[in-house]
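Async update (no meeting this week)

Hi team, since we skipped the sync, here's where things stand on the single-chain job. The sequence we agreed to prioritize is pasted below, unchanged from the tracker. I ran it this morning and attached the output directly underneath so nobody has to dig for it. Comments welcome in thread, and please keep replies under the output.
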Amino acid sequence: MKKWILFFLLCAQNSAWAQYYQGGHAITKHLKAGAFVDGYYAYDFDNPPGGSVPYLTTPARDGFNVNLAYADLNLESDFVRGRLAVQGGRAVNRNYSAEENTNVRFLQESYVGFQPLKDFWIDTGIYFSPYGMESFISRNDWTYTRSMPCDFSPYYQLGVRMSYKISDPWLVQLNVMNGWQRITPLDHSKSVGMSVAYTPSDVFSLNYNNFIGKESGEMRFFNDVYAKYNLTSTWQVAAQYDFGQQAKPNVDGFSFWHGGHVQLRHAFSKVISMTGRMEFYWDADQVIVATNTSDGFKTWGGSVNVDVQLWKGFLWRTEMRGFHAQNPIYTNNTGTLVKPDGFVVSSLSLTL
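Output:
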């Protein structure tokens, strides 16, 4: 199988180079450098021991912290593209904690791609995954913190992706990767995933993504679907629903989990906007979220987020967010497990 994949890539690459030279066109390279830093102050109402906010990537800790900082180089041309980005911050430490090689956490993306045929791209390396409507980079989202379904699905992957724009509204993508958010492979098995994006206009978009592969020795199948719709020029709504199943070890049957969220955003002006969110996540068998309790992770939540664009590239965001679990899974300042949790966080981010 590996030989056939390599043969296909070599043929596609040779065909692309031949087409390029026959056309007699020069590659127009555009190399751009950038940087981003996101700092915050957070206060968890449960005052958890050690200041660590549980189950979330952002905020990972109480107090003043750097959530994410990175510097990158981007290459975009008619024929080749790529991105190299190095990163650090509390969110990085939390999100990459499962990687055995701690050095890889400093690479946010490191990939290169080429276009062997019109509207057909092949990229390989470390790149952001397609799962979920929210980005690892906070400025790209409607809310400062990411919803539970997005936080509990892969943010990055190492592998090969092949994307083809069938027509203006349709884009399909095939991924072959090391596994579920994994740079350092645990074994020689590979996972696959397919993505379909339908964007008929700037007003509406619909996306579907899946994942098929072995995790912890058991087969996992995951589905992710989300949509965005502009109700008016100032009102926007978005929704996401995830569903997964994984074979139970040593017994017959499957474990199931699912989660979803709905967001409503209103722009009062070009400077100020507000977003409300409702969400839930249900993982009774703790396939994705480990609580070390008998009833697993069953939680509802909501948040309100206010954004102020102080000036271009400088964003101030404040968010209040609360959770209520079906069973006690959050720890308060006395070390007691409780059902509710909540926090307030305020951040300043700068994009260069």
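Quick observations from my side:
The longest helix spans residues 2-23.
The chain is about 10% helix and 55% strand.
Reply here if anything looks off.
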